[in-house]
Known about the structure:
Number of domains: 2
Low-confidence stretches: 3-10
CATH architecture of the largest domain: 3-Layer(aba) Sandwich
Order of helices and strands: HHHEEEHHEHHEEEEHEHEHHEEEEEEEH
Oligomer: single chain
Amino acid sequence: MKTILLFLVFGMITQLADSQFSKTLFNSYDNYKFNEISSRRFKHAELIQHLGTIKKSLGDLVTIEQLGSSAENRSINLLSLGTGKTKIFLWSQMHGDEPTATMGLLDLLNYISKNKNSSEVKTILSETTLLIIPMLNPDGAERFQRRTSQGIDMNRDAVRLQTPEAKILKSTRDRFDPEIGFNLHDQDPRYSVGDKGTVAAISLLAPAYNVEKTDNVVRTRAKKVASELTLVLQQFVDNHIGKYDDAFEPRAFGDNIQKWGTSVVLIESGGWKDDNDKMFIRKLNCVGLLSVFHSIATKSYERTSTDVYENIPMNTKNLYDIIVEKATITFSDGRPSIVADIAINKEEVHDSTGAWWKGRVVDFGDLSVFSAHEKWNGIGKSIESSLIEMNDIVKIDEVKNIFHK
């Protein structure tokens, strides 16, 4: 009885310590954020420069190894930290236009460099070995596109291994045989959480390794890690965490790496109001990962119930960027005016002058069942129908001025 009581007390103390560590990371983020990168549109050459800065600050705590090269001969690198038995494998930017986690990885590396002597960092580095591949698809990042320069979606190349980038990921996993892995992606910032209509800031998945979606030791461990990560993030973005569909995809890396014996958690960086560059989501990646590293190092995550993960609401698509509510729509040809809601989504455009945002009208009518990052009051205000026809490109500021007079 005393042994059980001591175990429970120890578990409570560890959970409290983990929670306090997460809060400290969140509240002190500006002190260790990697400020050299402030836009999500960065390329391989910039990343290499930043890795050089990280290497100087971390010194012998990190080794950087070139694993190979992309189809266009850009280096793909592995950062290794720690001497612990538990190996944690992370890879980011498998899709070239999904850079949020890469920024978060630079932040967490900078945290480690600035807090080398803290008890938490010492525990992480003595009990785990971190194996990090930032920017797995540098050719895609160069173009800010999902696919590789050969036109392949790398996350559908886990079986055929046609691309050099996919071969590097597979061979690195096989070489180290890590216990836990994190597959780091971005998702559409308009995903919402269940039927709540709140934006999904982060979505998680412990991928299935077979069609039946069976739970074995490997997948159960992934669910426990995902549960622990959920508890961390709920402190800061409660009701903004979704769960990705776990239908088995036989060509995907997450599903196959789970099958090959590494417990994989997919982290999808979603959206947040007024955060087009996902800087807040970047912060969540950093805080969440560092917190979970510590939980893995202390093995406290093993006491976390998989029910936490199972009870995460599913990702849904009930969200627009902007909804103008109950605007009066007039028609120049004499048709009677109507009252309708207008949904506008932002689309990023990138050209030689830089990146900018345009709006597109994507829905029209009674949109009362949908949510939006922004809702504008259109009651008593009129707009000519020719300005907001379906699928038309609109100037967001011009439309906003109509409804914010």
